[in-house]
C-alpha cells in the first residue's frame, strides 16, 4: 500500500546523507552500466560474425587444392594438386540427392577489361549458374549465367556493381561488349554482393568458356557446394561434416595424396566455422555476464553496508516504534523500501545511460567483427529484475536485524 509518510521519511533520510547515498548509488549504477555495455559489445560481436557469414551461403562447403607437404607412393612432396571437371562431375553424381547448389570454379586472377577509354584489372571466374546462390548475389540488372551458356560456351559475362561503376559509370551496361584480355564478351547481367565492393570487383563467365578461352583445359581451381536443408542445426552440421570428410578422402585418393597431408586438399565448412565462432561468442557473453554481475554484487554489498549503518544510527528510533506497537514486518518494510529505492534509482540511471550510449554510438561503430553493439528488450527487462532482487537482498539483512531489536535495549542506546 502507498504511504506518503513512508516516502517522506525515506527522502528525509537520504537528504541527510547525500554524499553517502550518492557514492552508494554510483557503485550500483556503475555495475549496471558496465554489464549492459559488455552485453552490448557481445551482441555486436555476434552481429559482426553473422555479417561475415552472410557474405556467402550459410552452409557452404568450399574445396581448394594446394601443394603436397609430404611424399606418398613414390611421389615427391611439393606437387601442386589440380582438380578437374571429372572430380566435380563424380561428386555431383554421387551426392546428387544431398546437394542443393553446386559449382566448380576456374579463376583468371588478373583479367584486363577494356571498354572504350576505360580499363581495369579484375578477377575473372568461370562458374556454373548455381554460383549465384553460393555467393548470395543479387542481380541488379539483366540475368545470370544459365546452362545454355555453359553448353554453348557463350562469350557472355556478369559483372559486379563496382566493375560496372568503373567501366560504365551511370551508363547502362547490359548489352554492351567488353574485352577480357583482348576477347569480346557481352555483358548480360550486373550483380550486387553482401560482402560489398571487395566482392563486387569480380567478373563471371560460363565455366566452359573460361576453360576454353583462357587455357584452362579441364582444370578447376575450386569446388563449392551447399547441402539441402535439414530439420535442425545439429543434423545439418553432422551431414555437412560427413560430406566434407568424404570429399577430402575421395580427392586425396584420386590425386595420390597422403591421408595425413593437411595442405594438399583443403575443405572449408562454413557451418563448422559458424559453430566454432558462436560457441566462442557464447563463452564471451557468459564471461561478460559474470563480470557485470560481480560488479553489481560489489555495489549491492555497499548498499547493504550502508543500510546496516542506517539501522545502527536509527536504533533508538526503531526501539520507540516497537514500543509504540510497530510490527516487525513494518520495520522490515521500512528498511527494504529505502534499500530498494536507492538501488532501483541508481540502477535505472546506469541502465538508461548505457542504453543511450549504445543507441548513439552503436550504429556508427565500424570495427572488424563488431557491428552495431546493442541490447535487446529482453536483456533490459532482465537487468530490471536483477535490480529489484539486488535491492531486496541488500536491505534484507539490515531489515531483519532492525526487526529483532528489543525496545528496552534500543531505548538505552546512546
From TrEMBL:
Protein family: Belongs to the ABC-4 integral membrane protein family.
GO molecular function, one term: transmembrane transporter activity
InterPro entries recorded: ABC3_permease_C, MacB_PCD, Macrolide_Exporter_MacB
Superkingdom classification of source: Bacteria
Keywords: Cell membrane, Membrane, Transmembrane, Transmembrane helix
UniProt lineage: Bacteria, Pseudomonadati, Bacteroidota, Flavobacteriia, Flavobacteriales
Organism: Leeuwenhoekiella blandensis (strain CECT 7118 / CCUG 51940 / KCTC 22103 / MED217)
UniProt domain ABC3 transporter permease C-terminal: residue ranges: 290-407
Residue ranges occupied by any MacB-like periplasmic core domain in the UniProt entry: 21-239
TM region(s), chain numbering: 21-41, 287-311, 331-357, 377-397
GO cellular component, one term: plasma membrane
Compartments, record wording: Cell membrane
Name by which UniProt lists this protein: Putative ABC transporter
Keyword Cell membrane: yes
Coiled coil: none
Family annotation (PANTHER family): ABC TRANSPORTER PERMEASE YTRF, MEMBRANE COMPONENT OF TRANSPORTER-RELATED
A Pfam entry, by short name: FtsX
Main location (coarse class): membrane
Membrane topology according to the record: Multi-pass membrane protein
